[in-house]
Write a structure and sequence with these properties.
Shape: elongated
Low-confidence stretches: 122-132, 298-302, 413-418
Strand content: 5-15%
Structural class: alpha+beta
Distance between the termini: 68 Å
Length: about 450
């Protein structure tokens, strides 16, 4: 194999998996282009950069090959990084975390190749002496190809997959602790690997220490898996606890209503007796006043029922009461029966949307209002929640809006002050084959959420 081909292929094997890894953890709706176009484009770009890398090394003087190869590699990485920053629309903190994961992969593979090359006798004799223009010898090229498959598979299973769930489920403002731990851990690991690679030790020291570093590598992946999985588990447990709390409140409300009904039935006989006595004595005006007072008191004690679905009704009762307790006008119109939707998922949708609406209205004073519309259209549950805003809602204008409505990611950047659970709503809608879109009217200072969950009525 020629020097040109070895250099081009070796650089491609190093570069392309890293380019893939910085895109894979993000949801497809965060891409500016279709996923297929991005991955194919990255393949073409990595191939072009690899050919340019090999051609540049072939045109240089032999004494300039080593420093030039490092500079060209750095330039290629910066170009891929610039494309990554542009093509992925998400919070900066999440982009940085994913970039460090790709860097962790690159450094780990580089160190593994050097470790195997120095210690395995079978690969030492794989090729003749290395030419001065060789950025990749034959044995290094073989080792890069052999290590890429198992290492990439291990990274996808223990790092990228939990990282994908973590990025999609945990809001930016909630991920600071895991972000700090992982960045420090990865930085320490990368620094240690580079220090070991650049330090000259006797060969027997390498032979004794490298099993320790292999163990450290596996431990680092386990740290990724545990921390990210624990964060996602904590997020899901929180949503389940909130659903259970709402159900508990609803049960207590039903029990309280039953007690009120029992007391009303007990008191009803006394009211009949009093009214009968007034009627016999001809005290009609007093009887009319008594009836007005009685009907008004009963109306105040009657629970408001919005729809026949117990979960949706309980959620609307809870959040409408919470809003009115804060002085926010809340208008609710709902019409839906039993639905083939998990109560926990309904809690995610209504809980996040209503909490956002109440939070947005708190700065509006007496002018705060929320309007809720819920209904069934064919096989879909459709929800529209509109509310007043005191301001402070920032929209990423890079997202294409349809009739003024944009996806959750347009409001999800912590740097711009958005988010607040919109992604959880969108993720739940997608789970049921539906959609979620949001609009902020800066002139009217209103925010509107439209959510559709495809379902079918239970029979």
């Amino acid at each position: 194999m020629t020097v040109f081909a070895r250099n081009a292929l070796g650089f491609f094997i190093q570069l392309y998996p890293c380019a893939l890894m910085i895109f894979l953890p993000f949801p497809r709706e965060a891409y500016r282009l279709r996923a297929g176009r991005i991955f194919a484009g990255m393949a073409v770009a990595a191939a072009a950069l690899s050919l340019a890398f090999a051609a540049a090394l072939g045109a240089l003087r032999e004494d300039a090959v080593v420093p030039a190869s490092n500079l060209i590699m750095l330039g290629a990485v910066l170009l891929i990084l610039a494309a990554y920053i542009y093509l992925v629309r998400d919070a900066v903190m999440k982009k940085v975390l994913v970039f460090f994961v790709a860097l962790f992969y690159a450094v780990t593979q580089y160190w593994l190749v050097n470790a195997f090359e120095d210690t395995l006798p079978l690969v030492r004799d794989l090729s003749a002496a290395r030419a001065l223009r060789d950025a990749y010898s034959t044995r290094e090229l073989a080792l890069y190809a052999l290590t890429a498959v198992p290492l990439l598979a291990a990274m996808l299973a223990f790092v990228v997959r939990p990282l994908r769930d973590y990025i999609q489920e945990v809001e930016t403002r909630e991920m600071r602790r895991e972000f700090a731990v992982l960045i420090v851990s990865m930085s320490a690991f990368i620094a240690l690997m580079m220090y070991i690679d650049q330090t000259v030790f006797p060969e027997w020291v390498f032979l004794r220490l490298r099993p320790l570093f292999f163990t450290l590598l596996l431990n680092q992946m386990l740290v990724f898996w545990l921390i990210l999985r624990e964060a996602v588990r904590r997020k899901r447990d929180g949503e389940r606890r909130r659903a259970m709390e709402i159900e508990r409140i609803q049960v207590e409300k039903i029990v309280g209503d039953m007690e009120i009904t029992r007391q009303m039935r007990h008191d009803l006989q006394h009211h009949y007796n009093a009214l009968g006595e007034m009627l016999e004595q001809g005290r009609l005006e007093e009887m009319r006043a008594y009836l007005d007072e009685l009907t008004g008191s009963a109306a105040q004690r009657q629970s408001e029922v919005y729809c026949k679905n117990l979960t949706v009704n309980g959620l609307l009762q809870y959040y409408a009461s919470l809003a009115r307790g804060k002085g926010i006008r809340c208008e609710v119109s709902a019409d839906c029966g039993e639905l083939d939707i998990e109560p926990a998922d309904l809690t995610v949708v209504f809980g996040n949307a209503m909490e956002n609406a109440i939070r947005a209205c708190e700065g509006c004073g007496e002018k705060g209002w929320i309007r809720v519309r819920v209904g069934k259209i064919q096989e879909a549950l459709v929800v529209e929640i509109a509310n007043s805003c005191a301001g402070g809602v920032h929209v990423d204008r890079r997202y294409e809006a349809e009739n003024g409505f944009a996806p959750a990611h347009a409001f999800a950047s912590e740097r711009e002050g958005g988010g607040y659970g919109l992604r959880s709503i969108a993720r739940t809608a997608l789970k049921y084959g539906g959609s979620a879109a949001f609009r902020y009217d800066e002139d009217q200072k209103t925010f509107t959420a439209r959510i559709r969950l495809n379902t079918r009525a239970l029979r």
